[in-house]
Amino acid sequence: MKMESPFRWIFAGLLSIALPTCLVAHLHAQDQSTSPPSSQSAGGAASALSPKEMEFERARVQMAEKRFDAAVQTYQDLLKADPKNASYMNMIGIAYLDLGKYDFAKKYFIRASKADKKNTNAVNNLGMVYYHQRNFRRAIREYQRAISIDPGQAGPHANLGFAYYNTNKFVEASVEFQKAIEIEPLIFERNDRVGTSVQDRSVSNHGLFFFTMARVYAQKKDAQHCAEYLRKSLDEGYKDVGKAATDPSFKDVVDDPLVQAVLVRVAKPGPEQKSSATQPGA
Fold it and tell me: Where are the domains of the chain?
């Protein structure tokens, strides 16, 4: 089953969930390395696009418009002229991933990672294939490999966190979420997916997941986002939101008015909250 997105970041049904205003419109920004250099005139001004550049721009538009079959064909044409271009291979894999054709996506991500052994995106995206197939242990291996290539990218850390979460390794998940936020503070807020670097945030227990994210932000002393995730957790019917009042992880934000406003709701649940708490699967 193809998991549709959140954050796409980051999340539909009991297995998917969207992070704040977020995660992820299906707009695929390309790798910088994918973009061919603009033609320059003798005076340094950009001249008309070359045929190759026009084809590349067409592929970008097709991806942005979610015309993934057309994008595959366009990138295939570009790849014929440049058969060792790992970025083209990566983008073909992304298109196949969005089409739910995981075996084809896997093939091109593997090709890209072999053509350019430093291509973090391709390895990260290979992890996404395994994640979509719910092979979380293999996904973890690929995300770890991507991080070993470039530990400074936030996406693989976030993705590794989601994979850990889905294997009930909540402490490890929190650590990776924190690393992602340290590298890119707004990663769970952005509305795009760069090279598919951040996967669909599919989790099995929304309430617990949101509480976990609240704890992560509390440890970063970010009361605003902490309160937002506590509220989401409460709205999902998670019964232990009130533990934030005494959990040491929340000590730096527990007195903030935004956090206190949520904790007051825990003590005095409204009709909507009572209703959600009784829903099956909450």
Answer: 214-282
